[in-house]
Design a protein that fits this description.
- The structure is a single chain.
- The chain has helices at about 1-10, 10-20, 25-40, 45-50, 70-85, 95-110, 150-165, 170-180, 275-285; strands at about 55-60, 85-90, 115, 130-135, 145, 245-250, 250-255.
- It is an alpha/beta fold.
- The chain folds into 3 domains: about 1-45, Orthogonal Bundle (434 Repressor (Amino-terminal Domain)), CATH 1.10.260.40; about 55-145, Rossmann fold (3-Layer(aba) Sandwich); about 180-285, no CATH class.
- The strands form 2 sheets. Strands 2-1-3-4-5 form a 5-stranded parallel beta sheet, sandwiched between helices. The chain has a two-stranded antiparallel ribbon with strand order 6-7.
- α5 links the parallel β1 (about 55-60) and β2.
- α1 (about 1-10) crosses α3 and α7 (about 150-165) packs antiparallel against α8 (about 170-180).
- The longest helix has 16 residues, at about 70-85.
- The protein is elongated and about 85 Å long.
Amino acid sequence: MKDVAREAGVALGTVSKVVNGIPVGEEYRLRVESAIEKLNYRVSSYARGLRSSKTYTIAVMVPNLISPFFSRLVDCINRELSARKYRMLFYATDYDPAQEQELVHLAEQQKVDGIICLSYNPHLQVSPDVPLVSIDRYFGAQIPCVASDNYGGGGIYNSYTLSMTKHRYFRPVVVHEFGHSFGGLGDEYFYDDQYTQFYYPDAEPWEQNLTTLKDFGSKWADMVPKGTPIPTPATKKYAATVGAFEGGGYQSKGVYRPAQECRMKINDWPEFCPVCQRAIERLVEFYCPKK
């Protein structure tokens, strides 16, 4: 770096600023870059990391590279990291939650600057000192989550497959998947024999027809008849009532749906519930506003 400063005729601190991306005068920047090219100077990432307490390394974890989706995803991430002078530390987790956790600990020991993870472990533990970005898995409001279009794509695939076989469920499935793909609605069915942690109680689901009651006022509280208890018992008394019925989003506990029955809960039900209807109508009005 001293040789670069001497060649460029600038102070050592100016070279350091240019190398580390800190703004300097245009003339000084060009002189330093010219000297770097002439001397074929290469920045030591190790020494750079010691000075800045950074390793310029990001751990990337996906199940494997056999899947075209995963391999393309990793390739795109690597390109973006390289463009920002970061290196990628890759781990294949093989869909194993225990292995994911072990690899997270290993990445933390490597002092990575962050982790990008497509996790299949709903209870994954990451040190709060290591930034985490999750792909397609919601860990809570405090963890950034980047969602792909796989879910909607799966619905389109289901519809296409059923239509090609003239399946009797083609029409009801198309309507259900329309609720997903256009209305942004979540599944309202759930499993009685297990509790799957898909949504978390500290944040509201983004889907308009699911709630954790964390911020029910932002969902359909305005549509609930006065005097209706929240949560709402799934009894005959409230069979045709908009309320907050526990069970939805694949979870039997902690997530609530607006009606006892709805097309987003069961394909044999003839219609969307009022909350789902409103969500779809809002999108129609958004894309086709009245003049």
